[in-house]
Specification:
Elements (H helix, E strand, L loop, with lengths): L1 H12 L1 H39 L3 E5 L4 H6 L7 E2 H8 L4 E7 L1 E2 L3 E3 L14 E5 L2 H4 L2 E6 L7 E5 H7 L6 E6 L2 E13 L7 E5 L1 H9 L4 E2 L1 E6 L5 H12 L5 E5 H48 L1 H9 L4 H41 L13 H27 L2 H6 L7 H26 L4 H38 L5 H12 L1 H39 L4 E5 L7 H8 L4 E15 L5 E9 L3 H4 L4 E4 L1 H4 L4 E5 H7 L6 E6 L4 E10 L11 E3 H7 L10 E6 L4 H11 L6 E5 H44 L1 H9 L4 H39 L10 H18 L1 H8 L3 H6 L2
Parallel strand pairs: 6-11, 8-10, 17-22, 19-21
Antiparallel strand pairs: 1-13, 1-14, 2-12, 3-13, 4-6, 5-9, 7-10, 8-11, 9-10, 15-23, 15-24, 16-17, 16-20, 16-23, 18-21, 20-21
Helix pairs in contact: 1-11, 2-9, 2-11, 2-12, 2-24, 9-12, 9-17, 9-24, 11-12, 14-15, 14-26, 15-16, 15-17, 15-26, 16-26, 17-24, 17-26, 24-28, 26-27, 26-28
Length: 859
């Protein structure tokens, strides 16, 4: 009980000094809890949506998955209307609705603006029937009646300012058509972001499927007393043809839907938890530093307690109890802040197009438990070493000294261990750079990153003595005596300086690494484009959709173009001369594609591969399977026939664009695939006639304006797109890393603030002999700047080594150019200096306000 009272007294006596550590714990716990609440809310939102839109039993054509339908690269499979009548008569069926759904459409307004989501959520066109009324209600207007009427969901209407009476155009597989908005529909459950338009059933069949007597799925409702499993069994038995129909219960449909979106949500969840983990790691340094300094400042107090009979175990327990109080306080605050972060993330995602309602906020019981346990455990573990060090101080030594004595043996062990870890990390990075396969090298890279990071954390205090002096020579000496005093203060406790700088080092190392990788990716892709792409223009969808035949024809009709090349991705099984079968994708392309994408051949001729009954494979495939030019390969096209093709070329695998592609001509593919099964183009490239590049570019932009799902890019546009995509990724990652850097900055603030308290008498004496307040504040700011720059030197050095090694692995995938983003590196150093100045504002202000006589009298 005495230990607890002592801990409580010390905790509240130093509550100001504990505040920043509590904030660090709070931020780390908040990001973890916020991530869990956000992901749980998103998952429950999708669950409710799937539950409200699913029938007891669903019947659909076999063989077509959701991804194929969303891409729209081939006509979707359908069920004949006769199947609806057959299912309606099955025992246990209360009712059945024929559903018409097309998730590959694009919907545009009269200005040709895309009304779909920009977050990857689909745009869905469907028929309005009783099944839809379970999940959607008409908010205004009326249901569509006839081919010239359409209803749109309220979220999309509000976002794109669509009003009753407006005309919208739907671009579907069979063709484009316009209709007037006569109704606005509102989801009863939250719509996570899809744009949905509704037509009457006859219009949907004719315009979306191109078949007046067909449905996409049958939605079956069970009679009371019939389980979904029993009804599924009856339906499957009646319909027969396991290869023709796919029959699922409501639970199975919901599970499929959860699997479709689960991967995306899991990636978001674990990526954000990863960044939260980095913030937790950085917070550990702050807590270790805080307790180390508090223990050092209470050395005499601890000595008195030991002299009065307190055991080492009691001293240890007292410090850990303070840590427990800190952990509980920070964690409880963190759980509350985490809910706020989750709401903020939901608002942010809603503004980007993924709607998540705060009314659906989901806080599982496990979330606050995880947050509190994480915060408490991390805080207690971080405080263990300072507590153990405090308990080891003998009473007499503590009474003689105002601080804990240095441990030379521990310093020697730290030096040896740090050097061993750094050597192990360097060896791992070296092995990764020499790997022949990216998969093998990635393991060495991960090991090298981990070992080198731990090595510099352990060895940081040893490096502080050298690096801080070098930095001081260039930064601090110009400030005269004040600069020299700042240098000595930074070197006074190398362990403290090293730990504070290491917290900054972690975040900055990751920023530098990703900047090198991102810059190298852009430089490599740009170099590859310059060498390999001969086309003047590239047309693709930003949403992963295939090129609509109308848009393809519009390109072919542009008179300023010399040629247009189409690329279709087909699935096939290859039977090799050895008898081995290999499932793979093949690229069916126009013969002119060989000019638009200049792929190096190591054997044969790529132009010959675009001839009749010919194909190419890449070098790695040829080597792995022992095939050579002139071999005959039996190709079985999915949903088509089997043909024997001659291997006319082997292309280089040392490329970034179309790496591993196997080429044949569209004409060859058409010999073995029915027209209904031939996929539309994934991409179209084009070459302008001599001297007409600008006119062709303008004509393409104009003629494809009615198709807002596609982008026309020349080579300059394509390079800028790559740069923008990588830049957006880096901005997102750096934004998440900012949490770790904020915690590290709090560490610098806390270290300086406690250091000012520790040096109160010394500051008073310096003020008494003539040091002005302005000089004192400058000294503390310079000390902070040199610590921040020290952390930047370690972080940037490590990050560049990691990034250069990662680039070597990417070179195996064709990204061969190493590009160091020197402007970014310069900004990191400038930002670190600014961080040092800002972190010192409060400690410097506090030191400047000290009463000189009271400071000198301080024990």
């Amino acid at each position: 009980m005495t230990v607890f009272k002592t801990s409580m007294r010390n905790f509240f006596a130093h509550k100001g000094r504990m505040a920043l550590s509590a904030i660090a714990v709070m931020l780390s716990v908040a990001f973890v809890c916020g991530t869990l609440v956000f992901s749980d809310t998103a998952t429950s939102t999708f669950d409710r949506l799937f539950n409200s839109t699913s029938a007891d039993v669903q019947v659909s054509p076999a063989g077509q998955n959701a991804e194929e339908q969303a891409e729209g690269d081939k006509p979707q499979r359908t069920l004949p209307a006769a199947d609806l009548e057959k299912v309606a008569g099955i025992k246990g069926v209360k009712s059945v609705e024929g559903d018409v759904v097309d998730a590959s459409v694009t919907v545009a307004n009269s200005d040709n603006d895309n009304l779909g989501s920009t977050t990857g959520a689909p745009t869905i066109a469907t028929n309005w029937d009783r099944a839809e009324r379970k999940s959607v209600a008409i908010a205004s207007g009326n249901a569509p009646r006839g081919p010239d009427q359409v209803m749109i969901d309220k979220d999309a209407a509000d976002k794109h300012d669509v009003q009753l009476g407006d005309t919208i155009r739907t671009i579907a597989g069979p063709g484009s058509f316009t209709a007037k908005v006569v109704g606005i529909a509102e989801f009863k459950a939250t719509n996570p972001g899809a744009t949905v338009v509704y037509f009457d059933t006859a219009t949907a069949q004719a315009k979306l499927l191109g078949k007046p007597d067909a449905y996409s799925t049958l939605m079956v409702t069970a009679e009371p007393g019939f389980t979904n499993e029993l009804l599924k069994k009856n339906v499957a038995a009646e319909l027969g043809g396991a290869g023709t129909y796919k029959v699922l219960t409501k639970a199975q449909v919901i599970e499929e839907g959860k699997n479709d979106v689960g991967g995306f949500l899991d990636v978001m969840k674990y990526a954000m938890l990863g960044f939260a983990g980095i913030a937790v790691l950085v917070g550990i340094f702050l807590i270790v530093n805080t307790f180390s300094m508090l223990v050092a400042q209470r050395t005499r107090e601890i000595g008195l307690l030991r002299a009065l009979g307190s055991s080492r175990k009691q001293i240890n327990r007292s410090v850990l109890t303070e840590a427990l109080l800190l952990g509980v306080t920070g964690s409880v605050l963190g759980v509350g802040a985490g809910i706020g972060i989750a709401i903020g993330l939901m608002k942010l995602m809603s503004s980007a197009g993924m709607n998540l309602s705060t009314a659906d906020l989901t806080i599982k019981t496990t979330t606050p438990v995880i947050g509190v346990v994480l915060g408490v455990v991390v805080t207690v573990i971080a405080a263990y070493l300072p507590a153990r060090r405090a308990a080891k101080v003998s009473p007499m030594a503590a009474l003689r000294d105002a601080g804990t004595p240095g441990d030379r043996k521990a310093g020697a062990v730290r030096t040896v261990l740090g050097l061993l870890l750094i050597a192990g990390g360097a060896a791992g990075l070296w092995q990764a750079s020499q790997a022949d396969k990216a998969a093998d090298g990635s393991m060495f890279l991960a090991g090298g990153v981990l070992l080198s990071l731990l090595g510099f954390i352990v060895f940081g205090p040893v490096l502080a003595g050298v690096v801080v002096r070098i930095i001081s020579a260039g930064v601090l000496r110009v400030f005269g005596p004040v600069g020299r005093m700042a240098e000595r203060n930074a070197l006074r406790n190398p362990r403290r300086t090293g730990a504070t700088a290491s917290a900054l080092m972690i975040g900055l190392a990751l920023v530098a690494c990703l900047s090198v990788v991102g810059s190298s990716m852009v430089a490599s892709a740009t170099d590859e484009l310059d060498k390999s792409v001969g086309a003047d223009f590239i047309v693709q969808s930003n949403m992963g959709k295939a090129i609509h035949p109308e848009a393809a024809q519009a390109m072919k009709d542009v008179p300023q173009l010399a040629h247009v090349s189409e690329v279709k991705i087909l699935e096939a099984d290859l039977k090799l001369p050895s008898g081995k079968k290999v499932g793979t994708d093949v690229n069916a392309a126009s013969p002119t594609y060989a000019d638009d994408l200049r792929v190096e051949t190591v054997a044969g001729s790529l132009k010959a591969a675009y001839g009749t009954n010919a194909m190419s494979v890449d070098q790695n495939f040829a080597k792995k399977h022992g095939v050579k030019v002139g071999d005959s390969i039996e190709v079985s096209f999915k949903d088509g026939r089997t043909g024997t093709l001659k291997l006319a070329a082997i292309t280089s695998s040392d490329v970034a664009l179309d790496k591993g592609a196997k080429y044949l001509s569209v004409a060859t593919a058409a010999r073995y695939l029915p027209a209904a099964e031939m996929r539309t183009s994934e991409m179209i490239t084009a070459k302008a006639k001599e001297g007409q590049a600008d006119a062709a570019y303008a004509a393409l932009k104009k003629d494809l304006k009615p198709y807002p799902q596609y982008e026309v890019r020349d080579q300059a546009d394509y390079k800028q797109q790559l740069k923008d995509q990588v830049g957006q990724m880096l901005n997102l990652v750096n934004g998440l890393l900012a949490l770790a850097i904020i915690v590290a900055v709090l560490g610098v603030v806390n270290t300086l603030a406690l250091s000012v308290v520790e040096r109160t008498r010394e500051i008073g004496l310096m003020r008494a002999i003539g040091l002005s307040r302005r000089q004192l504040r400058r000294m503390i700011r310079l000390e902070s700047v040199v610590i921040a720059i020290f952390g930047a030197v370690l972080g940037v050095g490590l990050g560049m080594a990691w990034g250069a090694t990662a680039q070597q692995l990417l070179a195996l995938e064709g990204l061969k150019v190493l590009d160091i983003p020197w402007p970014t590196i310069a900004w990191v150093f400038a930002g670190s200096a600014l961080v040092g100045i800002l972190a010192a504002l409060f400690p410097a202000f506090r030191a400047g306000r000290m009463n000189v006589l009271n400071a000198i009298a301080t024990e």
